[in-house]
Amino acid sequence: MSGEVDVNEILITPIATLIRELSKSVADAQLQLDAAALASQNALPTELRELGYEPTWYQIPEAQVELKMAVHYERSQPSGPVRVWATPFNAKYRNALNYTADGSSTLTLRIVPVPPHVADKA
User: DSSP string covering 76-113, please?
Assistant: First the structure.
């Protein structure tokens, strides 16, 4: 073992990026479910459509994510903004950096659908 840590392998990333990517993954999964249902609906024989048959549409009504992670705060200048970096706390991270679970944090997200925003008409 060389002792060097490949940050891409242990997934060190800003927390905002982590949350954004998790949210995009949930949205992408929903799009794939919708596309599969639409393809099934379009493939229905006319006779079944006339009888009122419709394929099942699935939805992800809620996604909950809980991550154990190591958190690192960084400020490049004394008066500059603080950046928060996180990495999932896993075996690779623990072994590569000799990190213990005592210092890990938990990030819990709940992603739920909401009705689209309708602009007020004045």
Answer: SSTTSPEEEEEEE--HHHHHHHT--GGG-EEEEEEE--
Task: Give the whole-angstrom CA distance, residue 53 versus residue 16.
Answer: 43
Name 100's Cβ contacts closer than 8 Å, sequence gap at least 6: 94
Model confidence over 70-86: pLDDT tens digits? 776 777 788 888 777 77
What is the CB neighbour count within 10 angstroms for residue 47? 8
Domain range summary for the chain, segments of one domain joined by +: 12-111
What is the DSSP code (8-state) at residue 40? H
pLDDT tens digits for 86-95? 776 666 666 6
